[in-house]
Amino acid sequence: MGAWLAAPSRLLFGSNARIASLLIACSAMLWPGLAAGQTWVGAPNLSLPWSDPSNWSPATVPDGSANISIPQGDVQGDFSFTLANSRIMSINSPANLSIVPTTAITNMGAIDLAGRIVDNGTLVNADIGFIVMPNGSALTGSGTLSNAGVISTDAGQSVIG
Fold first, then answer.
1. What is the DSSP letter of 18?
2. Residue 44 — very low, low, confident or very high, per pLDDT cuts 50/70/90?
3. Cβ-proximal residues to 30 (8 Å cutoff; 6+ apart), any chain
């Protein structure tokens, strides 16, 4: 069983999650270059690996240097990377990102989590990182969650370790 570390003073609840979602959306509108990135196109009913370029449009494996969008599907997070500052990873509902035990993902940007992350590897939310969890989202797992940034939650979500 992994260790989940959190800075309780950095957890936000209620309307703060809605405000944070709005800020993320506005940043993409104000800086259109931020919107460009990579989109998961893997089959929605199969669990497929992140590391397969054919699951992405354009057909390259995302390394965190561009925005990442996962609109649906079950993604096996088998590729370690750092989401760069000013980049956004959107995981829509009903999408799932399952971080495998050998994988480490570091967030220095923003994760807009409307779906689910199952962390069985390592998820680091750096001091400049931001995770937004609106109603119905979930962050679970038996891996390591290290939070020095902000996790903004709304009613109906869960952070379970």
1. H
2. confident
3. none
